[in-house]
Design a protein that fits this description.
Blueprint (H helix, E strand, L loop, with lengths): L5 H32 L2 E3 L8 E4 L2 E5 L3 H8 L11 H31 L6 H13 L2 H11 L6 H8 L11 H29 L3 H9 L4 H13 L3
Antiparallel strand pairs: 1-3, 2-3
Length: about 230
């Protein structure tokens, strides 16, 4: 058995140091600071009795009162964006919608690209991976322009179909739909690549045996493809 020398261990820590520093600065420190500040209230008046100065700003200890105020949400209506439960519901809806659409679209495209009779597979793969390869900031700007009220492509298509223009950023649900569309466009290529790699690892003998047994395509997908894709 060979054991790592101190030199190799130091070298490994040196390679990992930038990532560790980034985690501390951008994850652990903000989390710890936010957790600490959640028990305090910023003091803006002249009454500084019982305050604690942190980062040059006076704070007063509040205990769990901030948490009770947030969970109570007495100051805001349930449909108000500042209501905790409204924000929680939107967060759950956003997560479920994105994950569901990413998986569904990515898996559907992966199954299509796996079809042996499909021609120009390489071209289609490159085109479908482009949204993932482009910088997110550029993609966000492009989609923001496409959802523009006056000059956006989306509204031009709606007008061509006999529908009216939509002020996408003026209402909650239209803004939610626009953001969801943009994020799905950014995310489905990654899921497609994952599913495509997992599909290629499934032995073809299983499908041949299923065809001999008279299994339909849906039965093959439900009993072979989907269970073997679950780990990926």
């Amino acid at each position: 058995h060979s054991f790592p020398t101190r030199r190799s261990s130091d070298l490994a820590y040196g390679y990992a140091a930038p990532a560790m520093i980034g985690m501390v600065v951008f994850v652990f420190f903000p989390f710890a600071s936010g957790f600490l500040f959640s028990f305090f209230e910023r003091v803006t008046g002249d009454d500084l009795a019982g305050t604690v100065v942190m980062f040059g700003i006076p704070f007063r200890f509040m205990g769990l009162r901030n948490f009770f105020d947030i969970l109570g949400s007495r100051e805001y209506a349930l449909t108000d964006a500042l209501n905790f439960y409204f924000t929680l519901g939107v967060t759950i809806l956003w997560t479920v919608s994105n994950v569901g659409l990413h998986v569904a679209i990515g898996l559907a495209l992966a199954l299509l690209l796996k079809n042996p009779w499909l021609k120009l597979k390489g071209v289609y793969r490159v085109l479908l991976i482009v949204p993932w390869a482009m910088p997110n900031y550029i993609t966000a700007l492009i989609w923001r322009g496409m959802f523009d009220v006056e000059y956006g492509t989306v509204n031009h298509v709606l007008v061509a179909l006999g529908l009216g223009k939509v002020a996408w950023w003026s209402h909650f649900w239209s803004a939610f739909a626009a953001n969801l569309t943009t994020n799905v466009w950014l995310g489905f290529p990654f899921m497609m690549v994952i599913c495509l790699g997992a599909l290629q690892s499934i032995p073809g003998d299983l499908y041949e045996a299923a065809e001999v047994d008279g299994a339909s395509r849906w039965q093959q997908f439900r009993n072979i493809t989907l269970p073997l894709l679950m780990p990926a």
